[in-house]
Amino acid sequence: MTPVAASIPSNRAMLTGTALARTGARDRGPLASPLFYTVTALLFLASLLLVHEAKAMGNLCIFSPVEGVVLDHGKEVSGAVIEREFVWNWGKERAVDQTSTDATGRFKLPGIYRRSLMASLVPHQPSTLQSIVIRLGGQEYKAWGFHKLNYDENGELGGKPISLVCKLEQEPTTQNGVYGICEFR
Question: What residues contact 172, with CB distance under 8 A and at least 6 apart?
Answer without folding.
Answer: 142, 179, 180, 181
